[in-house]
TrEMBL record:
Domain Secretion system C-terminal sorting residue range list: 176-243
Top-rank taxon: Bacteria
Name used for this protein in its record: Secretion system C-terminal sorting domain-containing protein
Upper taxonomic lineage: Bacteria, Pseudomonadati, Bacteroidota, Saprospiria, Saprospirales
Organism name: Portibacter lacus
InterPro entries: Ig-like_fold (IPR013783), Secre_tail (IPR026444)
Length: 251
């Protein structure tokens, strides 16, 4: 005879079930907490068994890509998007339809889709059976392509990742004035970011000046340059974005 320990949580028709078998006839090879409801089929999230007794239905509890353990994390993420809402902001938005023991979400970012870092956190709703919408604003987007994803963390520190989504921020809002110039140029940047730098090269590639853009308007003294044509490049710190512009130095 086999015994099942059923522990109700919050709502009468939803239970967390912990099953452990010692019978050689059983195909369940793992133990742990799984989420079930209704009156259909019971199945192991590891795909190793199906049980007719009690005929309970397993929630497809997560559309996350990967988890920190073999235990299914019961958060249903049914919408995730990123959108450029201005040249200075990117909106990260996601929706859940089910959360069980959900501690928090961590918003992660990457410039190459491989190396990720956290840019913010939002509290989860613990246990919630209603639709919930979350929104995070990245106030420091970078020029070029940026990837975003959501890391969902349970109270027991199990976690899972969403699919990655990306935005591509382009801008032509760079101006050099005056051009041609005798002694200095002003570089106007419509999309200012702290990670932007500039380089000034001659026609054979030698670097004559380089520095950081400190504001939307940067003054550069070019009086020591000889007469000729020069390439000014706006470069992101990671090198993924380059914007070339040409100016002429006169006598």
């Amino acid at each position: 005879m086999q015994f099942h320990d059923l522990k109700p949580i919050l709502v009468a028709f939803v239970i967390l079930i912990s099953i452990s078998f010692t019978s050689a006839q059983s195909n369940f090879l793992s133990t742990g907490g799984f989420l079930f409801a209704n009156d259909s089929n019971l199945s192991d999230p590891n795909g190793k068994a199906a049980v007719d007794e009690n005929e309970l239905e397993l929630f497809a509890a997560s559309r996350m890509l990967s988890t920190s353990s073999s235990t299914m994390i019961p958060v249903e993420l049914n919408h995730f998007e990123v959108e450029v809402i201005s040249k200075q902001e990117v909106m990260v938005r996601w929706m859940t339809s089910l959360e069980i023991e959900n501690d928090f979400f961590e918003i992660e970012k990457s410039e190459d889709g491989v190396n990720w870092y956290a840019i913010g956190e939002m509290n989860g709703k613990g246990t919630n059976f209603e639709h919930a919408t979350y929104m995070f604003i990245d106030k420091h987007p970078k020029l070029g392509r940026s990837f975003y994803r959501i890391k969902q963390v349970n109270f027991d520190q199990d976690y899972a990742f969403s699919n990655a989504a990306y935005v591509n921020i382009h801008t032509d809002d760079f101006q050099i004035f005056p051009n041609p110039t005798r002694d200095k140029i002003f570089l106007f940047v419509g999309h200012y970011s702290k990670d932007l730098k500039f380089e000034i090269r001659d026609i054979i590639g030698n670097i004559h000046f380089k520095g950081d853009l400190t504001s939307i308007e940067t003054e550069i003294n070019v009086s020591n340059l000889i007469q000729g044509t020069y390439l000014l490049q706006i470069v992101s710190e990671d090198g993924h974005y380059r914007k070339p512009m040409v100016f002429v130095k006169t006598k």
